[in-house]
Amino acid sequence: MVNEFQRPRLENWFQNNGCVQIIISNFVKNQKIIHLKLSREIKTGLIVLMGIVCVIFGFSFLKSNSFFGDDLTLYAVYSDVGGLQSGTSVSINGKNVGTVNAIKFKDTSGNLLVTFTVNRDLEFSKNSTVELYDTGLIGGKGLRINPIFDGNSIASRDTLLTSTKASLSEVADQKLSPILEKFESALTDADSVMLNVNAVLDKKAKRDLRQAIGDLSILMGDLKGASNSLNKLLKTNEGKLNNSLSNFEELTSNFAKLSDSLNNAGLGRTLASLEATMNNFNSIMAKIDNGDGTLGKLMKDEALYNNLNNASRELDLLLQDFRLNPKRYVNVSVFGKKQKEYATPEEDPAEKIEN
Predict the structure, then answer these.
(1) H or E element in which residue 65 lies
(2) Which strands make up the sheet holding 72-78, listed edge to edge?
(3) CA Rg, the chain, in Å?
(4) In angstroms, rounded to a whole number, what is the distance separating the alpha carbons of residues 333 and 339?
């Protein structure tokens, strides 16, 4: 409210500057200018009106709206704007070129019509796309135009094609959902296992388990006692163990010297000769197995074997006959006695051999 001390100043200001002059042409024929004395209510109304105008212009300035600019008004249709707010900046290649003016439902299916304005600093095609994306990790949505320059100039009130970039939370949800499902399944399986274990571990089983744990504790105590005894034994016979290790070291040294002596004595050449001999023996055995040579023929030629077998049998018959009838082969006659004809004995050994 304007106080009494400020009233003369305001009246002088309005009168000197001619801000309010009302021309009453309908009632005054001479077209006289009448200076009305401003009342307190009129002054207050003018001040409030000027304040409202300043607030409107300031709000429009903060929203980057221009009352006198030649900006393009464009539209985009989304099924879900993800929390996009009016006044959000619209960018091209990272530069702010406009703002979102309004978001409202387009039809009964729930699609949303986004109205935004952009300046004319960059001419792009109406085939460009408007992408809805996350402006930060903690939330917030923004619009950016992916410009296309194909000669089809854009005009005001055109509707652009739209696309939505998956947010970090959506990508994380897609990646983590299978893992969470597997984790829940593992917890369910673990719960089932625990229920089965509780079902198996009745009072008797729990008592046996406690007894087994007690026996294990006793066993650990016995092992500790045995370990202490072993430490005492090792400490008592430390000198003997050192001597045994020294002897073993000397033995290994002697083995090394023996190995060197055998190597210097031509053991390698002897082994090489033995290997060559074995190779020759294998070659001979292979020839015998193939039927080469005398031994091979004896081993493989059945006819030769049969001939030798027959010759041996005939020699046996000859020796038997010589033993039984020596006079048949050796005949000594001093007085020219006539030799008797050979007569086959009744039990001829040749017949027995043939049979």
Answers:
(1) none
(2) 72-78, 112-118, 95-105, 89-92, 141-146, 129-134, 161-164
(3) 64
(4) 8
Tokens describing residue 102: 């309004």
Residue extents of the structural domains in the chain: 7-60, 69-165
Report the C-alpha gap between 205 and 197 in whole angstroms: 11
State whether the Cα torsion 76-82-88-94 is positive or negative.
Answer: negative
**Phi, psi for residue 227 in degrees, rounded to 5:** -65, -40
pTM higher than 0.85 for the full model?
Answer: no
Per-residue pLDDT of the chain (355 residues; tens, 9 = 90+): 444 444 444 445 445 544 444 433 444 444 444 444 456 778 788 888 888 888 776 766 565 555 555 788 899 999 988 888 888 889 999 889 988 989 999 888 889 999 999 988 888 888 899 999 888 777 678 899 999 988 888 888 888 999 988 777 666 677 777 888 888 888 888 888 887 777 777 777 778 888 888 889 899 988 988 988 888 888 888 888 888 888 888 888 888 877 777 667 666 777 788 888 888 888 888 877 777 777 777 677 677 777 878 888 888 888 887 777 777 776 655 555 555 555 565 665 556 555 5
Q: Is the dihedral of CA 244, 245, 247, 248 positive or negative?
A: positive
Cβ(158)–Cβ(126) under 8 Å?
Answer: yes
